[in-house]
# Entry
Amino acid sequence: MSGLDIFYTLLSALAGLGVFIFGMKLMGDSLESVSGNTIKNMFSKIDNNPLLGIGIGLGTTAVIQSSSAVTVMLVGFVNANLMTLYQATAVIFGTNIGTTVTAQLVAWGYGGIASFDLTAIFASCAGIGAFMVLFIKKNDLAKQIGTIICGLGMIFVGLSVMGDGMSAFGENPDIVGVFGKVTNPLLLLLLGTAVTAVIQSSSAMSGLVITMSAAGVLTFPQAMYIVVGSNIGTCVTALLSSIGTGTNARRTAVVHLLFNVIGVIVFMLTDLFAHYDRLLMSWFDTPQVQIAMVHTLFNVATVIILLPFMKPLVKLVTLIVPEKKSSKKTSVLSFLNDQILSAPPLAVANLKKEILSMLDLAKENFMAALEEATSLSFSDSKKIAEREKRINDLNKEITAFMIKLSNEELSATDKKYIAAAFHSVSDIERIGDYAENIAEYAEKLKEYRQSFSPEGLLEIDSLRQTLENMFSLTAKIYERNDASLIPELYTHEQNADDLKKLMGENHIERLHKGVCSPEVGSLYLSLASDCERIADHLTNVANTVKFNA
# Structure
């Protein structure tokens, strides 16, 4: 085999690996998009039951086909205080089992069963899926399914190309001899760790090792240690994503690393007398199935071993990554961060939570400002100013996050939601501005040394009750995406319009009677007008659910 032949074969193997990795990502991203609501529901059910957490981690990773991506998500969730470190640990246990699904798919599909060539059949899915994407114009779900099928096919196209290259190497005794000299288990372990850290996918590493083993370039004992080492290498992505995050988020990444490091240590120690390579070679016939099974059994066994020690593991991680007293959270966002962008459907779900939180903050500021204007008690003035600043900061940061999220792969429904959410955030920010106006009216009343008349205060209280009902109903409509409640909201909005009109008429009457001064009357009318506009903005927020149906 000439040097040029070796060069071409390496290019072929690299091309096959690239197609394989891209096919995995394409299929995983499309599966995630199609099953977005299922994933959202699964993560919303996370509690302190470790078995449930393991099941959710396994199921999510089986869909997304990347334990690294799920762990990055978990780093984001823990950083946003959406789950505890203990809950995230249980999910991590499940992700390590779920990531072996791809290896099993590859192992049973690559090479076929007996004389039945499954590789060619699966590879043809790339063409079938591509035609579906090209020729289906309107049905978004069908196009996504076509993308999933195309991704599945590309996995096997990549495997086939890699396999052809590796077969050429396998037929060359000199090359096989070079690989055959690398027999040190620790060296093979480090090789698997290093290569997986570079390509950031233990599933891709398994695919590469399977093709090399099937071609005779690697023996199963060599492949076994490389695959076991790949479990440590896959932790690099989560470790990198935890840089610059909160303490518990960094701990989540370390839990992932410790899980695999402890598993590898236990595996290597027990292998001294158990000789797993001999056992697996006696249990399973083909190299590809042997490799897939060692990957699966390693992760299942590690979960079984560490499950009773979850709490001590969490305590150990808190010692390894201590709390930094000086660390301060700079972002005003409670539910969003860049790490969660790796899971667009979940990012959309958390976006809704963030917007609802912003709406609640606007309500709190409005009620406090109205109380200040009616009671002329200024004990809350500083908090009102702080909340208004936070509302403005939320407007900027949520908008910036939505721009980033818009560039991710999203379902048609999520795209519509985000387009409408830009307007919702703007409406809520305007509500905050009107609350600030009302607080300024209170300052003016203090400056004038006057107050609203008893009759005016009763009318303001009626308007307050109407708007309080509107805030609650809008939040319910928005959270549940329930357009059926909008007619009830319209009733309250009409009531707010009628009250504003009545307040104007009554004010003129009081002005004629000398009950109210022109200066106070001007502030009174401005307050009524601001409240009516708040009602309009609340209606706008609720109406966005019509576009998400």
Q: What stands out?
A: The radius of gyration is 30 Å. The chain has a mean pLDDT of 85. Residues 412-448 form the longest helix (37 residues). The chain is about 80% helix and 0% strand.
